[in-house]
Here is the input.
Amino acid sequence: MKFTATLIVFLALNFGALALGTLLMNNGPESLWYNSLNQAPWTPMGWVFGAVWTCVMVFFSVFMTFLVQHENLKKVVALYTIQFVLNVSWNYIFFNQHLIELGLINIILLTILTFYFLIDFKPSLNHNRFFVLPYCLWLLVATSLNTYIVLYN
Here is the structure.
């Protein structure tokens, strides 16, 4: 039961982060500003972002549930909080404020942190650490999209 309860908490937190990020976007992906940017040729269609983020947050919630059961809670909460802030704030920085360079720094830091989750917790999580891998891979794509926008706009 403890696993299930913890998983529900992380699902609520992670989907809450997605909802908060969406509110902070100020209709960003549909805005004239965003649509007038030179975007990477590999930019997915809009619906893909929602589908991928949904899957990523489900897997990340499972990862976090395993993590809190095997690691120092203070360290996990601190790292999770940093991840939460970076994830949510990117939407505001990039879409709302149009600070594409600062957005790139933000998403690079978030990507580094997710790979830290993958690498640092190998001893305690073993194969369960791979639940964070979809997040890592998606952030590599997202970082490449942000980088392209910085370079070509």
